[in-house]
Amino acid sequence: MAAPLDDVRIIAIDSWMAAPSAGAILADLGADVIKIEPLRGDPMRDMGRPPKLDRDAPAVAVDYDYQFDVDNRGKRSIAVDLDSEQGIEVVHRLVADTDVFMCNLLIHRQERFGLDPASLKALNPRIVHATLTGYGTDGPEAWRPGYDVTAFFGRSGLYDAMREGESGAVPMARPAQGDHTTGLALVAAILAALRLAERSGEAQVVETSLYETAVWTQASDYAVTAVDGAPVRHRAREEMILPTANRYPCGDGKWVVFNMPEESAWPKLCRIIGREDWLDDERLQDVRGRYHNMGELVAGIDEALAHRSRDEWGAIFDEEGIIWGPVLGLHEVASDAQADAIGMFPEIDGGEIGMYRSVGIPMRFESADVGPRGPSPALGEHTAAVLRHAGYDDDQITALIDAGAVTGH
User: Model's pTM, two decimal places?
Assistant: First the structure.
């Protein structure tokens, strides 16, 4: 089977996780993604949590950075000194023969290295130039470096909207949630731009940011807030509108989530948890009455669910047609039968490090070769091969290495 992007070549100057994650998706889709790193490497290298060993677990490479791998698998790496004139010449030569240039450089750094859209259009009139930043490439905040915890979760209103009640603490996001979501947005923009470039024969310039992607993920809220400017209501469990659309702990300390906005769900839930007395309570005969007594209802449902485990309740809910979901721990998802059935954790042959599980991209194809192409590259692992493909001979490559413009194999 062919891969969707097996004839697409991409040059990426990126670091950390947002833009690299986009490159990993494009590599899974078949693109030849060449990652240009500084001589010291992407700062994300060797920062990942090492795996915990378990006697019963299969052997794993404890010194391999699986977190760096998931955002850089299947790519080729070339190490270049962008502060040297020779290093910039190398990058320009590579860019002149590529389909896409993608980066997470702020605009002043793009201009400093001659990697801004105008400069690269002059080198390659059909190129797709794609940028991912924290806040965009223009406007009063364009200068500001952005990370997902600051730009995606903080400035976008997401952290505030996730608070439990008006005085609740700001929750902490898990690593790179905003980065990976924004990476998906960049992939979509690049694919659309490639289509335009193919049709028009002209260069295309696209960008996205952590900030605007985060706002889009909250579009249901902003559809109204953009109109009326009203702040979001921070609802604790005891302040939710419906008891049938809330979350509750079970007897083993694990939680479930209900999402049943229909009025018919209320009597069904009451019967299942053994609280038929609520059906005769005059205070609870409509949505308004239940809302005004939500504190009592939440406490009552908590008490009822405390008599069985989450999974025991789950079997009952399924049998009775309750719309619910388990609140799984990450370790539970990694062994979830449904995740396995749809290939969420594909295996990669890492050569010397053996077979290991990675994380699948959230898209599947019936008749295309899509998936991890291999592990992440060592720093500068493909420097010589990439330069030879660009027309450098061995003497020229040696001269560049001796001058410190590039490093690698």
Answer: 0.89
